[in-house]
Amino acid sequence: MEIRTNDMQMIGAIRRSLENCILGKSDEIERLLAALLAGGHVLLEDVPGTGKTQLVKALARAVGGQFRRIQCNPDLLPTDITGVSIYHPKEEAFIFRPGPIMANILLADEINRATTKTQSALLEAMEERHVTVDGISHPLPSPFILFATQNPIEFEGTYLLPEAQLDRFMMRLTLGYPDDATEKRMVLNSRSDQAYADVEQVAEIGDIARIQERVRAVHVDEAVADYLVRIIRATREHHSVQLGASPRASISLMAAAKAHAYLSERDYVIPDDIKRLAGQVLSHRILLHMEARMNGETSEDLVGRLVQEVSVPVRLER
C-alpha cells in the first residue's frame, strides 16, 4: 500500500489547525488524530478549563463533519440523545425524530453527569453504529465518532462510567496544564476565543472515511501481533490486576497502532507504534486490586512497566 502525498498534506493541515487552537499539546493531538483515523471513540478526562471541548469543536470544524454537542446532566433522558418516534395524525403513523446522536462527530460534554441509564443509551451506538428506537434500527452517519469529556475530581452529582462503556472508548486522553511559556502566549492573546474562530475547514468528512479505509489496510507482521497479545496477556496475569484488558482492547490497540503508523508515513506497524499508544488505549480498561490502589499504584504506571518488560520482536517481515 502506498502512502498518498495528498493524504499526508491533509492530515498535516488538520494537525496545524488543532495545534494553533490548543497550544503546546502536540503529542495529545497526535493521539487524537490516531483515534480519528482508526475510527475510535475518545474519552477526554481532565480538570475544567484545559481545552477539552474546544479541541473537539476545532477538530469537527477542520474536517467538515456534522457536529453535535450534548451537555450532559442528571435530567437528560436516553431519548434526548437517540431521538424519539412521534405520532403524526395526518400521516397516521409514527415519525422518527432523530436526536443529536445522528452526527459524524458527537461531543458528550461532562458525560459522567448523565445517569447510568442515559449513558447506556450510547452503548449500542458506540459499538454497532446504529440506534434502536421503538424496535426500529436507525443507522448513524459514517464515520461516527464519540468524544466524551469528564472531570476526574468531582464526585457530587456525577455517575461513574460502567466498565462496559469504558471498554468501548478506544483511548482515554488527558491534556493537562500548559507549561509557563505556552500559558503566557495564551494570556497575551486579545481574545480567548480567537484561536477557535480562526480554525478553517481543511478537509471533507468523506476524505476522513477514505483514509480510515487505507489505515485498515496497513500491514501487521505476525511478530508484531504476537508482541501486542503478550502485552494484553500480561495485564491479565499481573498480581496487581483484578480485571485485565479485554479482547476488544487488543483490537483497539492494533487499530490505533495502524493509524499511528500511517501518521508516521509507514504502511506497516512496528512495535514502537504499539508502545506509543498502549497507555492511552489500555489504562482505562484495567481495574487494579484495592491493595494496589491503596499503595499508590495506578493503571497508567502498570501499563508503562509492562510495555517495557515484554520483549520486543527483533525481526519483522515487510
From TrEMBL:
Record-annotated AAA+ ATPase domain positions: 38-179
Any one Pfam family match given in the protein's UniProt record, by short name: AAA_lid_2
InterPro entries: AAA+_ATPase, ATPase_AAA-3, CbbQ/NirQ/NorQ/GpvN, ChlI/MoxR_AAA_lid, P-loop_NTPase
Keyword Manganese among UniProt keywords: no
Keywords: ATP-binding, Nucleotide-binding
MF GO annotations: ATP binding; ATP hydrolysis activity
Source organism, top-level taxon: Bacteria
Record-stated family: Belongs to the MoxR family.
The protein's name: Magnesium chelatase
Protein's organism: Paenibacillus darwinianus
